[in-house]
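Support case: user asked for a sample of complex input and structure output to validate their parser. Sending the pair below.
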Amino acid sequence: MTMTAKPASAAPPEAASTSGFLDRVLKVRELAILVVLVLMLLATQLDNHAFLSEQGIKDLLLNATILVLVAVGQATVVITRNVDLSVGSTMGITAFAAGEFLRGGGNPLVGVLIAIALGIGFGVVNGLLVSLGQVPALVVTLGTLYIIRGLDSIWFGSKQITAADLPSGFADFGHNGFGAVPYLALLTAVVLIVAAYYLRSYRSGRDLYALGSSPEAARLAGVPVRKRILTAYIVCGALAGLAGALYLARFGNVDSGTGNGYELTVVSAVVVGGVAFTGGSGSVYGAALGALLLTSINSVLPSIGVSSVWVQAIDGILLLLAIAVDRVVALRVAAVLRKRAAQTRSAIHHA
Amino acid sequence: MSYRTAPARRAAAAVAVVAAVAIGATACGGTTKKSTDSDSTKSGSGSSAAASANPSAPIKKGLTIAYLPKQVNNPYFTISDNGGKKAVEALGEKYKEVGTSSGTDTAGQVSYVNTLTQQQASAIAVSAQDPGALCTALNQARKNGVKVVTYDSDTNTNCRDAFVSQASAEDLGRTEVQLMAKQIGNKGQIAILSAAQTATNQNTWIDFMKDELKKPEYKDIQLVKVAYGNDDAQASFQQTQGLLQQYPNLKGIISPTTVGIKAAAQYLSGSKYKGKVQLTGLGTPNDMRAYVTNGTVQSFELWDPAKLGALAGYTAVALASGQITGAPGETFTAGDMGSYTIGKDSTVVLGKPTVFDKSNIDQYHF
């Protein structure tokens, strides 16, 4: 944005105010999810006083952690106008790999690192296929979804990891914490903050947005397209791997079907969180809030005694609502930008 | 969901087609004498069986018993089919297992049935993904002299020769209530955490639980809710949390699904409810070992899937040997498992479920 030389004298204040406006819109977008979430939780609390007890808050946070992690990774990819559908399979296979290692008496920390490394490996494969192959990410990652699930079945067959195979400290890590704040939630928060800071403040992070806004323009502006896309997929794979290890700690049971169908939940969370599927906009905070909102709904309904058959319908309505809001916001932002551009042009002419 | 299974189904269909072509080719290449021989023996045994069973008929050798579980690589069916393998091979017969890698790929199951018919398997032991969808293919198989035994999950009664039931629905439903009642001292609120709302097995068991609860000795037990965790770990977690929040005085949860009970147990073992809220239902010893050891769960029950698979194998061999035809009242010997009688609707019941607790869980490994 600040690279063009000619209008340098006039552009900086304009650019700053435009991005300030955009920032505000995006913040409002995330704020809206937060407001919906808080209202929903408070209303549930009024109906059922046990809902926001210490155990209740802990459960809400724990339920969200795994989805938040994968959604943060997915958001990083979606921002570049790509998608990674293989996250569910990656999560399943990494959970099993970590479990298999721990069953053999391995160190839990090494187990987690193995899961992350395996996730990175799949991220590299996805990233290379998408960036070098010039094939739509949807198709490529649909392919790797099946391939990884197939590897999972071949490698593990009908074996399963059960709670009895895991060291007790590892399972405790999955549900203990400081009061109402579980360790897993703290870990997830750290990951979230780091990812958000990177995307916001690093040049390579901003490049991801540029890529998503207009791949062609980004390429012409000198953004190393392949490298950046690869990075996004590696982040996504690593987080899916970490999520796999945490899944193992939290649920204590893994078989070759673990994570089946999870990619759709993740994509829903990302979209509800305001990360546009057309790329170039949204934030990982939004994606995390989207994930928190979706998992919280699944906790709210049983807690107020509503049948679980409503869960999916409500998720779907939220999804459509989120897309509608995004569309309206996008139209209004475009209108504002056009107006400003016209003003700038006339200002230059008059000068 | 559907877009994911489609390619798998296509792949399965392709495999089936290739297999069918290959079999067709070998049949053409083989001597006609051999095939007429086998045809005549088959039709011979078929007609005699149709007329009447001969309980003292010797067990035929060289039979091929094919297992078609709901899903291959599913731990439960692997144990079950391995039990079947042991039984079948002990009798000197040939065992094989085929099946789909998805538990909801009905078209895949149909094409496996067709392939097995073309391969002239002596008998198929199948766990049906759908009670009706396999009927045409299975009846085609039976017309060609293949005996059909269903196990674990039945088809409609007119599409198979016999059904080997894991335990009667009535026994399962009633014994789960009895276990729970013992754990909570016949008093307090209880809830049920089931699989999907449409799961046939679970719904039948739940009906018997409700019936058992009507007995006077359980008058102080109230069933407050039936929740559905859809056999998904996260959903079962959240449904369990919901039950505990909605009913603070809840004394116990019955989960008649192996996925539900282990998820509920994992949640309880890491929450403040551990040891205060009782949990029982159907689970496997391997899944539940950690929770019985750490005091979250006192006892639970299940049939032995290895014995279920073995009984399916013995039944298939007895059918293929002409010892039984599947008519109610016939008896046959199931190896070292003793003698079994065919009941109503051609059903053979394995027996009462086994209860697992701290004292015996270490003897079981499945």
